[in-house]
Amino acid sequence: MSVRVRFAPSPTGLLHIGGLRTALYNYLFARHHGGQFILRIEDTDQSRYVEGAEEDIIRSLRWAGLLYDEGPDVGGPYGPYRQSERSELYRRHAHELVQKGYAYYAFDTPEELEAMRERLQRAGNPSPKYNAITRLSMKNSLTLPEEEVRRRLEAGEAYVIRLKVPRGEVIRFYDEIRGWVAFESEELDDQVLLKSDGLPTYHLANVVDDHYMQITHVIRGEEWLSSTPKHILLYRYFGWEPPKMAHLPLILNPQGGKLSKRSAAELGIPVNVRDYIEAGFLPEAVVNFLAFLGWNPGDEREIMTLPELAEAFSLDRVVKSGAVFNFDKLKWYNQQYIRRKPDAELVEAVRRELIARQMPVPDEAYLFGVVRLMKERVEFIHEFVTFSRYFFEDPTEYAPEGIEKHWKEDTPALLEAYRKRLEAIAETEFTAERVEAELRALAAERGVSAARLIHPTRLALTGMTFGPGLFELMAVLGRERCLRRLHRALELIPASWQVPPTPE
Ligand code: GLU
To answer: Which end of the chain is more exposed for a tag (fewer CB within 10 A), N or C?
Structure first.
């Protein structure tokens, strides 16, 4: 039987980065086995539905390259793939369980449920449940006379359908990542399967769909582990074979706790996939990073593309313990993927970046120069334009600490002499070697160290005190820009070189 897996998000908000990892592991597993990867939207909880969330999920998956074989927007033989369009199926199955004696109607009002919980809490029960014991004192089709149940149903009274969890049973299942897992049935509630609005809860819809969509492996986050015993009961009562189960390790923040919205915000880690897209992360980098968040190929490799990951992926290399989200590592991946991109592709990306920022776009040869010089030094595409803005605009300010440190009394005379030497070089001969030779010759002639010229030249050309090697930088900027900027700095800096004291 061919492998079929699904990513089954609820459209309750923007897709979380942890959700993308779940989708990725499902995708890799499907591709590894030549099976199918399905997107199913679990939108039966109307109170948590968020407009636009489904679009965000789809956009995020496409951005990451996790193309699914079946889904709400691409169709497929087991549709519809949106649970809100399948409610009749769930309703039928909930009633079928009642008929078989594995579920029952319950008519309790919210007040009655609350009263039951309070009563049990007062009696010293810290986690009161609607279960094999308490159900006997509640208003349901197990306690009320058949006649009355029928009357209530016919009168259209509100009811839910609850799962009749057996008493005193140990429910075991094998988890592909964790091994055997066991839950006492005492720990389970008589789960509501069908709500009073006629819609199913997650548990019922999830099991019914996994069955009818012929899902072979359920791969999902650890937070669903405690739901699995309920699902196991449902499979048993329907007489269906459960799919194989695999629960992925929690994602931890670098301080050890769960990577919650709150802890992530405190640590400056974005949580929504959209934030990563907007921050300029490359999909290849995010995918590679997420793949290693709880899995590794068992060898030295760290940089792996989607097809390579799919080839290497297996559930038995997924770890049980939590996986720490190392944001710096993700930035490192981004940098690695920028370095691996062909120059021409980066030139296009820089061009788009400039246009988006309404900055002038220089000619192609110049852009290639910038890309070649900077591609080893940036972590994000936008840094070609933001960190080294001076490639595209003459500096209008000069770093005060640079002026203080490097702009000496004789600097203007030295720089003017250098400018004259540069002016004498023909445009076609304006190479890194040539501008360096001129600088060193001048320093020797004046009996000063080369550094006395290098630092103020950098400051004049870029406004900054650091950056790529000065002579390569000058070659990229070209003769005209260098001359213009030196001239300008010589005009501007002397007047402003008295740095005002920093306020206390
Ligand atoms: N709808 C659930 C979610 O939001 C699906 C969990 C599962 O994969 O079973 O994650």
So the answer is: C
Fold of 88-194: Glutamyl-tRNA Synthetase; domain 3 (3.90.800)
Residue of minimum CA distance from atom 3 in ligand 1: 9
Instruction: Report the percent of the chain where pLDDT is more than 90.
Output: 92
Give 498's pLDDT tier (boundaries 50, 70, 90): low
30 contacts 37 by C-beta, under 8 angstroms = yes
Instruction: Please give the C-alpha separations between residue 394 and each of 134, 208, 424, 474, in angstroms, as whole numbers.
Output: 77, 64, 22, 13
pLDDT of residue 46: 84
Best substitution site from 4, 61, 224 to test ligand 1's pocket, by max atoms within 8 Å of Cβ? 224
Confidence band of 502 (pLDDT split at 50, 70, 90): low
Best residue among 42, 57, 83 to mutate for probing ligand 1's pocket (most ligand atoms within 8 Å of CB) is 42
Specify the pairing of strand 103-106 against strand 160-163. antiparallel
Instruction: Look at domain 4-72+206-249 and name its CATH class.
Output: alpha beta
Distance (Å, rounded) from C-alpha 337 to C-alpha 47? 41
Q: Give the architecture (CATH level 2) of 342-383.
A: Orthogonal Bundle (1.10)
Residue type, 227: S
CATH number assigned to the domain with residue range 400-497, chosen from the 4 options 3.40.50.620, 1.10.150.390, 1.10.10.350, 3.30.1360.120: 1.10.10.350
Catalytic, 261? Answer: yes
